[in-house]
Amino acid sequence: MPKIPFPKSKVSRATADRELAILERTYPHAATALRYSNPFELLIAVILSAQCTDARVNLATPALFAKYPTPEKLAKAKRRDVERLIRSCGFFRMKSKNIINAARALVAQHDGRVPSQREELEALAGVGRKTASVVMSVAFGEAAIAVDTHVFRVAHRLGLTLGKTPRDVEQDLQKIVPRPKWRHAHHWLILHGRAICKAPVPLCGQCPVNQICPTPKILARSLTARALASAAGAPKPRPRRSAAARKKR
């Protein structure tokens, strides 16, 4: 199915507030699906989750953390051993290099502790803005909005942003989401994206926001346009010959 276009204009602030309030009520206990027991494990799990599902990461990390439970242990690991443990997460060679180097930096520069500040987090191997935002918000309760593919897609479909980049989307969300709720809001959007507002086709009929969301109308127009185009291009039925005409052949 062709990609559904995003809305070309933002919804009003009042509509945005209503949409977010509905999502907050729908997903009151929204939290990361990654399994971890401390900031170090969360950091490693988030790095591994790049281009990979949380469910798959959760299958790999128990063995990884059993063998390398601390930054000190992981910093001394051999890459081939780590690669074997995280192979199922995809891009395992680069990810192995990154998590080992991140662990080494934690030991050398932070006494084996995960920092809570963005600048220090983003200086670690394999950590970009999104990963830093997840660690800040989940591990340390800091005000941060992490924009992954789900957040990017759902925020656009709801008409909350017209941003071209994840940073643009983050800034738009920061303007409409109260700061104390920043660290929760991206979880609402992520869970909604996984359950209802899926790619490529959202389940608008099951969506609690569909009465005020602009995307159902776009989807309806898109389906109608394709139906009309299909009908216009369909071959015309051949006229049926009479019995007498068939006998003459």
Q: Would you list the SSEs in sequence order as H and E?
A: HHHHHHHHHHHHH
Name the average pLDDT: 92
For this structure, what is the CATH class of the domain at 39-140?
Mainly Alpha
Question: What is the percent of helical residues?
Answer: 55-70%
CATH topology heading of the domain at 39-140: Endonuclease III, domain 1
Biggest sheet statistics: none
Number of strands: 0
Shape assignment: globular
Helix/strand/pairing category: mainly alpha
Q: Can you identify the CATH superfamily of the domain at 39-140?
A: Hypothetical protein, domain 2
CA radius of gyration: 24 Å
Strand composition percent: under 5%
The helix tally amounts to 13
Can you name the CATH architecture of the domain at 39-140? Orthogonal Bundle
Q: Low-confidence parts, pLDDT < 50 over ≥5 residues?
A: none
What is the first-to-last residue Cα distance? 45 Å
Summary, kept brief:
This protein is mainly α. About 60% of the residues lie in helices and about 0% in strands.
Folded structure, characterized:
- The protein contains 13 helices and no strands.
- 59% of the residues lie in helices and 0% in strands.
- With 249 residues, it is mostly helical.
- It has a domain at 39-140: Endonuclease III, domain 1 (Orthogonal Bundle), CATH 1.10.340.30.
- Helix 2 (39-48) runs antiparallel to helix 8 and helix 5 (79-86) packs across helix 6 (92-110).
- The chain is globular, with a radius of gyration of 24 Å.
